[in-house]
Amino acid sequence: MARKRKYILLVAPVAVALVIGLVVNAEMFPADYSYQKGIFGPHNVQAELLPANSHIRGQITAKNPFSAYVIVSKSGYFEDVDGDNVVLSWENVTEVNLDFNVSDGNYYLVIKNGNVSQEIEMRFRAER
């Protein structure tokens, strides 16, 4: 019995902390919000699908230059970002302020790092 009580006393605080963490996370980052912060290697590419028929507001920041694009892609392939599928672009920048509309279709926010490994932070909200 004492062993069971000791186990409950150890598990209960962890369960409470987990529930509080989930509630705080849900409040801070609602479903229409995206936040990512990570290390990008030289020339790494990352893409985020943008919700159709929405208004995007946010920011992308880094210490060293990177490029960001809004592209249309049916295949989801982003390695060679060319003029045919690029809707918006910001090249060799350290900060991007996002404020644009997305219509119906497969639109992606693509981040392509420069030639130095670095941390890039992206946050945006999709408003309908």
Strand content: over 45%
As a whole number of angstroms, the C-alpha radius of gyration is 20 Å
| CATH superfamily grouping | GOLD domain
Low-confidence stretches: 15-19, 21-30
Number of folding domains?
A: 1
**How does the major sheet shape up?**
6 strands, antiparallel
| Backbone shape | globular
Explain briefly what this protein structure is.
It comes from Thermococcus thioreducens. The chain is of the alpha+beta class and 128 residues long.
Describe the overall structure:
This protein is of the alpha+beta class and 128 residues long. It has a single domain (37-127), classed as GOLD domain (Jelly Rolls, Sandwich). The protein has one helix and six strands; from the N terminus they run αββββββ. It has one helix spanning 2-28; strands spanning 33-40, 45-49, 54-72, 86-102, 107-113, 118-127. Strands 1, 2, 3, 4, 5 and 6 form a six-stranded antiparallel beta sheet that branches. The longest helix has 27 residues, at 2-28.
How are the elements arranged and paired?
Elements: H1 2-28, E1 33-40, E2 45-49, E3 54-72, E4 86-102, E5 107-113, E6 118-127
Antiparallel strand pairs: 1-6, 2-5, 3-4, 3-5, 3-6
Organism: Thermococcus thioreducens
Protein name: Multidrug transporter
Short key terms for the protein model shown above:
single chain, about 130 residues, Jelly Rolls, Multidrug transporter
